Hints:
Elements: E1 5-10, E2 23-28, H1 30-40, E3 45-46, E4 49-52, H2 55-67, E5 69-70, E6 74-77, E7 84-87, E8 97-100, H3 117-122, E9 125-129, H4 138-148, E10 154-158, H5 171-180, E11 183-187, H6 188-195, H7 200-210, E12 214-218, E13 224-228, E14 233-236, H8 249-263, H9 267-282, H10 294-304
Parallel strand pairs: 1-7, 3-5, 4-6, 9-10, 10-11, 11-12
Antiparallel strand pairs: 1-2, 7-8, 12-13, 13-14
Helix pairs in contact: 1-8, 4-5, 6-7, 8-9, 9-10
Amino acid sequence: MGRIGVDLYPLRTGVRLAEADTFGKFLGGSPANVAVAAARLGRRTALISKTGADPFGAYLRTRLGEFGVDTRWLGETPDHPTPITFCEIFPPDDFPLYFYRLPKAPDLEIRAGELDRDALRQARIVWMTGTGLSAEPSRTATLAALEARAGAGTTVFDLDWRPTLWADDPAEHYAQALALATVAVGNVQECEVATGETDPRAAARALLAAGVELAVVKRGPDGVLAMRRDGTVAEAAPVPVEVVNGLGAGDAFGGALCHGLLAGWDLPRTLRYANAAGAIVASRLACSSAMPYAAEIEEALTCRR
Length: 305
């Protein structure tokens, strides 16, 4: 549930947007990418979001369908254009993003009264993001979706901190969502925004104290840490790759994390699998169309043994 838009990436890496002359067009938006990532792994996925009533919105709807993502809950609004995101690509670790979501992105116009609460309760996993809490009516709708999920299964809160998309302090809204979710996922910076803690283990403990049952802290080149409420702790080392574009790696991680949770794998296996999925996408230019299939992830893991 949440953000969707069109990504326009320069087809030449190492150039500023002012110098870029050719671009590739891709489906984007973190929740949309996570849905695609899980679909690539054989899971039945759907997206709750909105686009503009424009050609870019039609493109996104078509691409989701081609990727196997159910679009029945993808609405549209004539009042706001489908957002576009540009990036600059400077491997291995510099990928500035430029969001064009003004005057307002359609995915922030999701309303609580439009939610299919029965479908939300029946889903084995619901994935929502911090950006959905950044403005009304999406904020109320996102919290309503979490409330509809109470006791109904796994609910993942992707902290997804994008400072340019917030006009106020997220702390209160993050706290509300953490109290309703069962899993929290974020990088070290996002965990600091949510908890005030900079140490990964302290941040994981703070996320658990806020209400979730599983905290997953992504540490970039230092791998990933996960901690359960019962005291179980697991870590996984990163999978070394030649980075082409780090954007989308976290979404591949998210889709693979969902896959592992649904499969009932133990934490170490789930983290290794999700790390490998993220690494594969980091070695490719695109995000959504770069999401790996299960055989590719297994091959990457086999090569590391």
